[in-house]
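Re: [help] complex structure
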Amino acid sequence: MRLKKSFFIRPTLLVAKELLGKLLVRKIGPFDKLRVGKTVGTEAYIGPKDRASHAFNWKMTPRNKTEYLEGGHIYIYLVYGMYWQFNITTAKRGQPECVLIRALEAPEATGPGKLCRWLKLDKSFDGEDLTKSKKIWLEDREVKIKKSQIVATKRVGIDYAKEWAKKPWRFYIKDNLYVSRK
DNA sequence: GTACAGATTGAG
DNA sequence: TCAATCTGTACT
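Output below.
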């Protein structure tokens, strides 16, 4: 069952945690080639107060404007000139908050950059509505992830954000092989 | 117009 | 440890 708008329009930290264990479904190309992966790692970005967020201090640029969309949309952007980052917006329209999908349970998708390459996601998906799209969406599962299975640590690659870099806003499923980095 | 850092990755 | 690689942003 596809996740509805009401799932995403909730506190970002809660959405980040509850996205763990959900299925990301992607249909590719004219023949609807199917790629499905369980979400096993996420990070929350809560602009405008979060220094690590692109929308810190209400900053809005052509790049990050989709982060201001209503919960349930895709915010995708290029980092380091070569990797796409797949984010899902949360909260109400005008609130620049989102969840970065860092890890799927798929051997081809180790890391957020490779994840997008595997799913063939790029700028054309920026602003896509996950609750309506025919190409990509999230599905609920019978199996719920227990609280004790969720690990919270600091986020990756944002040391410049000083005290915000220490916030335990990265969530992943304990002992999952596809989460570990290096 | 120019300069430069960055929500990463894989090779060495 | 470090380079690849390029967009957005902040400068001049």
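Helices of chain A lie at 5-8, 12-18, 112-118.
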